[in-house]
Amino acid sequence: MTDANDVSAIIRQFADQSGAFGPTGWHIVAQHKNPWGRVPMTDGGKFLDGGSRAYIDRLLATQKQPDPKSRRHHYVPRTYLKKWGFDKENKRVWNLDTITGNVRAFSVNDVCVGENFYRVVGRDGEAHNRVEAMFGVVDSELGRIQALFERLQDPEQLRFDDLMGLGVTVAAQRMRTAQQRRLLLQHDAWLVAQNSGQFKSIDDPSNPLGVAGVHTKTLFAALWEAADVMTTRSIEVWDDPEGRFWTCDAPVLVPFLSNKRPSLMAAPHILWPVSPYRVVALTNSPSGEKAVIRQATAKERGLVRKAIEQGRERWIFASPEQKDRLPTTKKFGRRTQVRLRCTKWTPRGEPIRPPGCCVEQTEVFAAYPDVAICNQGLHTHATKMWDYT
């Protein structure tokens, strides 16, 4: 069982460590100007100070708060979606349901939300919502970073803490969605099929909150390592004066290349729309500047649109001025799925002696999980993966 105390223990181990980077395992591949004057990494959460440590402290402080009563938990914050909203206080937003093809206006209270999405079972066997309180801290930082980059005019005004805040915000938002939970279930089904004695399914009817527990625990365990990937990229801010950028229910986008999603390290772009007028693009092309603000080209606008159409889970959101441009006639038969392939190499690039192999997991844009494994009798077909397409 996983509860907020488990997640707090993961966070506390980062807060209590002060080591930096080890002397081994690193080599110089290129040199570029570092505009921040500091190494923009935490070594997976081992080196935290300033705003990063304050962020950890705020997360830990939620454990002293009363258990939140809310049972409707948002995996995309309402404050984020309001940038595309209208009506009183921007509380309604136009969205395309890519399953039905319908375009409707909904309250931001009623989209990207799940009943008990973050409700977990504690060590005492009692269910609670304290993880939702932790996500309140995450949402607060997301709101700050979103507003900062929506209004940013002079990149030199960015502080080091803003860079770290951007990294942890993008990492958390990418991992917390319903899409990532579905992919987690596909992965779980594969593991259980390979060794049901060692792996027990997290999708257990007798423990309906088990999936939420595993999802939130793995998210916080991987948070700082994922944030390190984001903070070592260059920041570009793409402007569109006509406000043509959409967003979706998986708003941190790693565009597919030939229908296969590259790793975070290899991806040319990681995209985060912050308003109809702006997208933050984290790129692999060092600029030597804190950020580069420029008008988006037609190619870049097309990249964002395609990334949203392919990367969404179900919902695409547009401003009132752009709602009539939503692709209502498009057939959305595909979305993100797990891709499995056998390889003769380990993730570290070490060769595997025959007849062994290593199963590589990536993501693919497809109608179903894409599994093509060797016929050496080493693997079992995992039919239950298709239950989570």
UniProtKB/TrEMBL annotation:
<dbReference type="InterPro" id="IPR025332">
    <property type="entry name" value="DUF4238"/>
</dbReference>
<dbReference type="Pfam" id="PF14022">
    <property type="entry name" value="DUF4238"/>
</dbReference>
<protein>
    <recommendedName>
        <fullName>DUF4238 domain-containing protein</fullName>
    </recommendedName>
</protein>
